Amino acid sequence: MSSLVKSVPIDLDKTRHLRYDFNALCEIEEGLGITLPELGTKLSGKIKLSDLRTVVWAGLIHEDESLSIKQVGALLVPSKLGEIAEKVSKAFSEAFPSDEEIPKNGKGPEPKKNTTGKDS
């Protein structure tokens, strides 16, 4: 089954794919005991390593439901925290696109309108 939310590849033990669909967001809420708006605040500030592990785990289980949170923790390398955070951020951007990026016709982003009055 195809997802409406795009995945972001992340290199761990192999190339895996972070995706924050509705199920992943529910897992994060349950795992961290916080709401989605609180998660946004947490991700934009200082985040505990255990919380980051939960967020990464929730983004990975769509492709392997047997993956445990401890297994994900073993895949995360502390020296790559910046890269991991960047991938998580990008995957969240895919889950919550800006209004301009939401397709109106189901075929992709709307083309930018020419407002100069000239043909391009």
Indicate the topology.
Elements: E1 8-11, E2 15-18, H1 22-32, H2 36-44, H3 49-60, H4 69-75, H5 81-95
Antiparallel strand pairs: 1-2
Helix pairs in contact: 1-3, 3-4, 3-5
Alpha-beta content class: mainly alpha
Oligomerization: single chain
N-to-C series of helices and strands: EEHHHHH
Annotation, overall tally of beta strands: 2
The unreliable regions are: 108-115
The proportion of residues forming helix, as a percent range, comes to: 40-55%
Q: Total number of helical segments? A: 5
Strand content: 5-15%
Distance between the termini: 39 Å
> Could you tell me the radius of gyration in angstroms?
17 Å
The global form is globular
Strand order of the largest sheet: 1-2
The description of the largest β-sheet is: 2 strands, antiparallel
Q: What would the average pLDDT be, to the nearest integer?
A: 84
What does this structure look like?
This protein has 120 residues and is mostly helical. It has a domain at 15-95. Helices cover 45% and strands 7% of the residues. The protein contains five helices and two strands, in the order E-E-H-H-H-H-H. Strand 1 and strand 2 (15-18) form a beta hairpin. Helix 3 (49-60) packs across helix 4.
